[in-house]
Amino acid sequence: MAHIIVVGNEKGGSGKSTTCMHVATALSRMGHRVGALDLDLRQRSFGRYVENRRAFAAREGLDLPTPDYRDLPEIDRAKIGPNENVYDHRLSAAVSALEAQSDFILIDCPGSHTRLSQVAHSLADTLITPLNDSFIDFDLLARTEQQTGKVLGPSIYSEMVWSARQLRAQAGLKPIDWIVLRNRLGAQQMHNKKKVGKALDELSRRIGFRVAPGFSERVIFRELFPRGLTLLDLRDVGVENLNLSNIAARQEVRDLIAELRLPGVTVDF
Q1: Would the CA dihedral through 49, 106, 210, 129 be positive or negative?
Q2: Whole-angstrom Cα distance, residue 257 to residue 254?
Q3: Range list of H helices, the chain
Q4: What domains does the chain contain, in order, with CATH numbers?
Q5: I want to staple 246 with a disulfide (CB 3.0 to 4.6 A). Which of 79, 169, 179, 242 is the partner?
Q6: What is the C-alpha to C-alpha distance for residues 190 and 195, in angstroms, rounded to an integer?
């Protein structure tokens, strides 16, 4: 069976699609068969990222390793029972179509609570939650005391992940490996950054996730999207002399893939 990687966060602008694309492309470059789904049926940022990549590669005559992206199939509602959900069937059909021919399936969830996102989390072998490094986004994971910052309890999103874990346990599936990525880390060791790190470490022990450094804030990420490129493609498109920022960003991708601890994956790029 394919190993399913879900990238989820119920707040927008955390870097989910960038994370999806870099993980999917890195695995593809290492020779793994990678399927891809985007459950944000309106914006489709991940889907458009892959489409941009295919168009750029065709236009430039390049053979860029690319995940096998699929749109969710339409389902005949007349064939669905009265108590069944059409989105459950659409997601199940998409995963089934990819599973037999994929080593990994990347699923990008929308930045809001939806039925598709809820079901996808229950399918996750690995769950990646990108988080902007601030207490505004920390609120996604936990409620905190206003004056002291003390963690009071899990948020609605964390409770949803807990429910997904319970569903997997009832089905006899292995536990979700949950990784929270600290994205857009500042270069300086600011006081607030340390406070966020301390709060994450405390919460990780309470509700069971691993904390990992993600991607720093870099202009290049915005520049890569229109061509569907990732940091791993720069030399393929003629960029021979990488600047220090690009080299550091590529290392962040390596570190992320290593931190995911995916089965059968050895970082060799």
Answers
A1: positive
A2: 5
A3: 16-29, 45-60, 86-99, 115-123, 135-138, 156-170, 191-207, 219-224, 244-260
A4: 3-260 (3.40.50.300)
A5: 242
A6: 9
* C-alpha–C-alpha distance, residues 28 and 42, integer Å: 26
Cβ within 8 Å of residue 54, ≥6 positions away: 66, 228
Break the chain down into helix, strand, coil percent, rounded to 5.
Answer: 45, 15, 40
Paired tokens of 96: 């089934």
In a 3-state reduction of DSSP, which class is residue 10? coil
- Residue 101's H or E segment, with its range, is none
Indicate the helix (H) or strand (E) that contains 213. Answer: strand 210-213
Within 10 Å of residue 51's Cβ, how many Cβ atoms?
A: 13
Q: Tell me what pLDDT residue 146 has.
A: 65
The C-alpha atoms of residue 179 and residue 211 are separated, in whole angstroms, by 6
Backbone angles phi, psi at 189, to 5 degrees: -80, 70
Token readout for 56 is: 């750029």
What is the rounded end-to-end Cα distance, in angstroms, of the chain?
25
Assign residue 213 a region (left: φ > 0; alpha: ψ between -120 and 50; beta: otherwise). Answer: beta
Measured CA to CA in angstroms, residue 105 lies from 27, 38, 49 at distances of 10, 11, 16
**For residue 143, what pLDDT band results from cuts at 50, 70 and 90?**
confident
Classify the C-alpha dihedral 201-12-57-34 as positive or negative: positive
